[in-house]
Specification:
The protein is an alpha+beta fold and about 170 residues long. The chain has one domain. Helix content is about 25%, strand content about 20%. It starts with a strand and ends in a 15-residue tail after the last strand.
Length: about 170
């Protein structure tokens, strides 16, 4: 018996705006797995259109919008390092510059400690550039049953793409 549960999500294309995000079946946000997968799909748009990405993250945050601190956190973690987000998708490796396969597929995991606090979840995602799982923290809104983004904890540094690694 495994102590981890995985759910795999496949996206034909990644959302570029709120309308595209809302059209995805996972946008029901009725499971923490769906919301975590959407967070990663949305973050892939950061380099193309930061404002649209923030607007989509605000949808995923529910009743609270992204704070100034959270916006700066994303800027610090992703400027010039967009490859970090793509590293969570199947097929992305340091050797191929973290270019994922299409359609885009990502797996989200839970473990026995993911749901220790009522209405809170810590989901786990694997970067191909890191040795350990990374986390996305979510909060459930009991009145709607929806899971919303609380904290993006998965964007610490990973191995750089091979073409940028002087030791590769």
């Amino acid at each position: 018996m495994s102590d981890k549960t995985f759910e795999r999500f496949v996206f034909d294309s990644l959302p570029a705006n709120e309308a595209e995000l809302s059209a995805l079946p996972e946008a029901s946000l009725d499971s923490p797995y769906k919301t975590a997968a959407l967070v990663l799909a949305v973050l892939c748009n950061y380099e193309k259109d930061t404002d649209a990405t923030i607007a989509m993250l605000n949808v995923l945050k529910g009743p609270e919008e992204m704070s100034v601190f959270e916006k700066q956190f994303l800027k610090d973690r992703l400027d010039g390092k967009q490859y970090k987000v793509f590293s969570f998708f199947e097929g992305a490796t340091p050797e191929n510059g973290y270019a994922p396969n299409t359609p885009y597929a990502v797996s989200v995991a839970s473990n026995p400690y993911s749901f220790t606090n009522e209405n809170w979840a810590v989901m786990h995602v694997q970067s191909s550039g890191a040795d350990s799982l990374r986390q996305i923290k979510l909060r459930k809104k009991p009145s709607t049953g929806q899971w919303f983004l609380n904290e993006i904890q998965c964007l610490s540094d990973i191995r750089v793409p091979a073409e940028a690694d002087p030791w590769a």
